[in-house]
Amino acid sequence: MNTLQSHVLETQSMHSVSEITKLVSINVKHAQKEVKFINILCLSALMVKKNMHLAQKNVCLLLELKRTGEKMKLKVNLELKRRVKPVNSQLQA
Predict the structure, then answer these.
(1) What is the DSSP string of 24-72?
(2) Which stretches of the chain score pLDDT less than 50?
């Protein structure tokens, strides 16, 4: 006889079938609650992963925006310098 069978026989000698059924039912309910909890944890982990991905994407977009913004500033500054030079040369003449 293996250990599982000996545990079953020991339990049957201590409890009636209805008591065992009730205990099993309680254990099943607890297991179902634990499964729900694990599912919630998995969904939370997926949400965290998605949020991390979006945060990385936002950082890339901000860096690109900064880079293109700096290009625009340079372009505007060059255009202003071109406009200012003729005015300065006219003032000196």
Answers:
(1) HHHHHHHHHHHHHHHHHHHHHHHHHHHHHHHHHHHHHHHHHHHHHHHHH
(2) none
